Amino acid sequence: MLGKLIKYDLKSMNRFLIILHAFLLLIAVLLRVFVTSRIQLQTDEGSLLFAFAILAYVLAITGIAFGTAIVIAVRFYKNLFSDEGYLTWTLPVTPGTHLLAKTISGSIWSFIDNVLVFAALYIGIATPDFLRLFESQKEDLMTELGFVGKYADITAGQLLAIFLLMGLLSCICNVVIYYASIVLGQLFPSHRVVGAVACYFAITTLGSVASFLFTGIAQLSSGNLNFRFIVNFGAEGAAGTGMSLTFVEYISQVLVISLGASLLFSAVLYIISYQLMKKKIDLN
Amino acid sequence: MSGEMNPILECRNLSKKYNHQTYALNDLSLSLGRGQIVGLLGPNGSGKTTLIKLINGLLIPSGGSVLIDGMAPGVDTKKLISYLPERSYLDDSMKVKDIIHYFTDFYENFHADKAYEMLADLEISPEARMRTLSKGTKEKVQLILVMSREAKLYILDEPIGGVDPAARDYILHTILSNYSEDATILLSTHLIHDIENVLDHVLFLQNGRLVLNASVDDIRMEQQKSVDILFREVFRC
């Protein structure tokens, strides 16, 4: 039953999201052909155009990521808590299977969105000129960012795998938050949608505060209070020496800690959603 | 007939309170036997839909319990019940044939060939998208889906409310010719006159309470009245 539920969820979301992401890739190709490939990076000429291209990207990516989140949340709400819920809840399926199916299908599309956003960025920015410039500056840049010491041998493939894994985990966490907000919103019978939106803001605020505190406490306990860009101090005495951290060390530490906090927070929200769906929610 | 040894439906002191104050259903106890058509009758707000939603597990009871074939609402009871709600519950963007596929995927006791046969009878194209159909046609599609299942308990909430009299006849004919003898149909409606002749048993609900639980034959024999007339007397405003 789980597989069938996921199949129908994906089918329902595909209609909107394939079009939305085809549009994203189209924008990326158009910007590449008409803007970024014509920019001479070695000169200042075209820097305004480049700034425009970046702005257009940011807007398109933000809009499409927001649209994806809306489609995922609306599918969950509509399928379970609108009139369609009269069919969904009378299928011979447990509330737990419904929640799991929706979490998997929502996370799949959220992850596809993430990957395609990166793909669009790559299509748009990685012109031959840009890649040549990057290659020529690569070593300096990597050193300045702190890819030295134990981080020196990291390959592009490994970095990509780490990004993808972290992206996947954060997609799952986000989807769990959307669903928990909608389920909690059902506890306000006459204002279910407004309740869900209010719960979303409350949950994300709470999550940010918790993550901030969690990260702070973890750093305090490990004794690492700040980081420094080694660009200011030269490469010598970089990773792993003294109290201060390189940029890469700091970012990876913060990412791991905050992702851990998010996973813990999402697990709690998932359990709350499940219990409410099983024991508390009345269909309107 | 209503309280035999192995009932298909049993409610024990069943209550449902909304917003912690109003009782939509209050201390309702009843038992329904198999192989009969039961009319669930009562004015608006009497608790008919609340009772139906409780049986289908769409509401959590505030008190008491409901058992279907001896089981509390759950995966196993949902396999036994074929439910037609009083609203349109199908995804408007789906085609009729996709919905038939959906039912085939999820209900083992769904007969797609039977559904296609009834669609052909009513000249409804399986290729039609739900959103292009009229309200009455949508209701017919829903009824066809519900009656194409080989269920033990059919629960039909206002199945003839939104359609014209000719379609009403077809729907009643569809209901009567598509259920097996040991199955039970619980049918809620305001239009008593139209369905009186097919009912074996009636339940009258008023303000969330059961005020009558009797066989149609008893009503006719003992009270010398039709169900329609009795209803008008009991619920006189």
Set out the fold topology:
The complex is a heterodimer of chains A (284) and B (237).
Chain A: H1 2-34, H2 47-81, H3 85-88, H4 95-125, H5 128-145, H6 156-185, H7 192-222, H8 247-279
Helix pairs in contact in A: 1-2, 1-4, 2-4, 2-6, 4-6, 6-7, 6-8, 7-8
Chain B: E1 9-18, E2 22-32, E3 37-41, H1 48-55, E4 63-68, H2 75-80, E5 81-84, H3 96-106, H4 112-121, H5 135-147, E6 153-157, H6 165-177, E7 184-189, H7 192-195, E8 201-206, E9 209-215, H8 216-223, H9 227-234
Helix pairs in contact in B: 5-6
Description:
The complex is a heterodimer of chains A (284) and B (237). Chain A is mostly helical and 284 residues long. Chain A has two domains: 1-126; 139-284, no CATH class. Chain A is built from eight helices and no strands. Chain A has helices spanning 2-34, 47-81, 85-88, 95-125, 128-145, 156-185, 192-222, 247-279. Chain A starts with a helix and ends in a 5-residue tail after the last helix. Residues 227-242 of chain A have low confidence and may be disordered. Chain B has 237 residues and is of the alpha/beta class. Chain B has a domain at 9-86 and 154-234: P-loop containing nucleotide triphosphate hydrolases (Rossmann fold, 3-Layer(aba) Sandwich), CATH 3.40.50. Helix content of chain B is 34%, strand content 25%. In chain B, the strands form two sheets. Chain B has a six-stranded mixed sheet, sandwiched between helices. Chain B has a three-stranded antiparallel sheet with strand order 2-1-4, with helices on one face. Chain A: The chain crosses the membrane at residues 16-35, 47-77, 108-131, 159-181, 193-217, 254-272. Chain A: Keywords: Membrane, Transmembrane, Transmembrane helix.
In short:
Chain A: Keywords: Membrane, Transmembrane, Transmembrane helix. By secondary structure, chain A is mostly helical.
